[in-house]
Amino acid sequence: MASEDWKYQKRFLRDELTDMVFYTYLYNKIADPEMKKNLEHLAETEKEHANFWGNELKKKLGIDINKITYRKLKYFGLKIVRFIIGRNLIINLLEHGEYASVRKYKEYIDSYKGNEDYKKKVRDLITQEMEHEDIFAGKISIEEKTIQKSRDFLYGMSDGLVEILATIAGLTAIISNNIYIALSGFVVGISGTFSMTLGSYLAQKSESEYKISMLNRKHIFSKSRKIDDLIENYSKEASNSALNTAISYIVGAAIPILPFVFLSKYAAILVSIIAVGLTQGFANAVVALSLNTPILKTAVRASLLALGAAGITFIAGEIFHIIFHISLL
Predict the structure, then answer these.
(1) Between the N and C ends of the chain, which has fewer C-beta atoms within 10 Å?
(2) How far is CA 309 from CA 163, 265, 271, in A?
(3) Three-class SS of residue 107?
(4) Residue 271: half-sphere exposure toward Cβ, Cα within 13 Å
């Protein structure tokens, strides 16, 4: 065995054990019979993969594999993430994990120069991991409507975060009283909520009316209870979309405003910047997760853009303060 080979095998063993334990945990938490069956199958497959890597380590190096355990920190982190983002998006996260496993196995076996029989067995593992990804991809397509709602909520919250933080940052440079800054942010938040909600309602209303019109034209001679229920659901889409937008925007707006209620203005703007940066990064990481795009890159980019907007408006406020001597109590 190559000097570094056992390190890869130990890492793969721990990864497979972690996946096995987490799939078993999800099996006990999810009610969907089809998904429970899939998770049971996945846990059993990961156990087989773990046995393969464990046997390789034991056979060639005599390592006591009973002392090798799953990654407890990762497992705990996955449980927390599941609690935060819910069942549907955790499926996307698992699909990311399966793709990452396939990629790691592929890189490993491409660089391996040893036994051909061993390489074939690893390729078989790769094939099985790809089947896992297909299972999650199929389930994601079924849950797409629910995932879209979560995504829309996060987009609305992101708008509230960026708009209000930028406003407050600019006001911090010209208003000395932290409560006045908070009240100003509150007023802008109300305005932004109505604007965003109205825009969301009108956009969805037009789309829903179009769908209802096409449905009525298609079934003009064949109305049924099913069609009536569908029309009723379409009729509720605009109000549901508006409510979702309003709640998400308010949640986003509250995060940068609240520190100004309790802290002096410079301490408050610092706390607001940190809170918005973290929240914006997390929200966009979840959106990236639902879209299967790079998570870390998306999170960092979103955070930097939000902070950049705040920085620009703060500088603009400082310029007005210095040049025009604008300052409010």
Answers:
(1) C
(2) 8, 18, 16
(3) helix
(4) 16
3-state secondary structure of 3: coil
Closest CA to 161 of 305, 314, 312, 318: 305
With both helix axes pointing from N to C terminus, report the angle between 144-172 and 116-142 in degrees, rounded to the nearest 10. 80
Q: Which two tokens stand for residue 181?
A: 């800054």
Among the residues of 263-293, which ranges form H helices?
Answer: 265-291
Place of tokens 């889409």: 237
Mean pLDDT of 222-251: 78
Residue with the two structure tokens 């849950």: 143
Locate 139 and state its tokens.
């389930």
φ, ψ for residue 175 (rounded to 5)?
-115, 125
Whose structure tokens read 């406020």? 317
Give, in order, the Cα–Cα distances in Å from 57 to each of 1, 54, 62, 71, 171.
10, 5, 7, 18, 62
Dig out the tokens for 146 from the structure. 């629910």
Tokens 């569908």 — which residue? 230
Start-to-end CA distance of the chain, whole Å, equals 74
Q: Per-residue b/e over 199-211, b at no fewer than 16 CB within 10 Å? A: ebbeebbeebeeb
Evaluated on CA atoms 167, 255, 245, 310, the torsion sign reads positive
Least confident segment among 67-76, 142-151, 165-174: 142-151
Which of 2, 112, 6, 65 lies closest to 120 in space, CA to CA?
A: 112
- Reduce the DSSP state of residue 247 to 3 states and report it: helix
List pLDDT tens digits, range 4-42.
667 777 888 888 888 888 888 888 887 778 778 878 888
pLDDT: is 144 or 41 the higher one?
A: 41
Q: What is the C-alpha separation between 58 and 63, in angstroms, rounded?
A: 5
